[in-house]
Amino acid sequence: FIYGSVICLLVALVPALTRLFCSIPLPVSSAVMLVSYLPLLFSALVFSQQITFTARNIYRLALPLFVGIFLMALPPVYLQDLPLTLRPLLSNGLLVGILLAVLMDNLIPWERIE
């Protein structure tokens, strides 16, 4: 994690490296992201086989997942009216899904819900 953070910091501070990474076509960077997310998806599917699915667990899993997928598929036009600081955060479906899952897990008293 530390090495990756230092590399990202160096890329951000060196304009030549920033230009290099910005010149990479979107399909290439999307393919790299797909390859990096596949092990994460595989581990999530393996973990989901160990869970006993109840209505409570399905809500805890499905709502953040669907909100994240919805935001990833949402055209950027719909986010143009948001403040510039919130736009990158809310356009990232993965980030919003994770934050929603953490908030739901900590704020909703799941033990009292049947």
From TrEMBL:
Keywords: Membrane, Transmembrane, Transmembrane helix, Transport. Coiled coil: none annotated. Pfam families: Xan_ur_permease (PF00860). The chain crosses the membrane at residues 28-47, 59-78, 90-108. GO terms for cellular component: plasma membrane. It is a multi-pass membrane protein. InterPro entries: NCS2. GO terms for molecular function: xanthine transmembrane transporter activity. Its main location: membrane. It is found in: Membrane. Belongs to the nucleobase:cation symporter-2 (NCS2) (TC 2.A.40) family. This is Uracil/xanthine transporter. The lineage of its organism: Bacteria, Pseudomonadati, Pseudomonadota, Gammaproteobacteria, Enterobacterales.
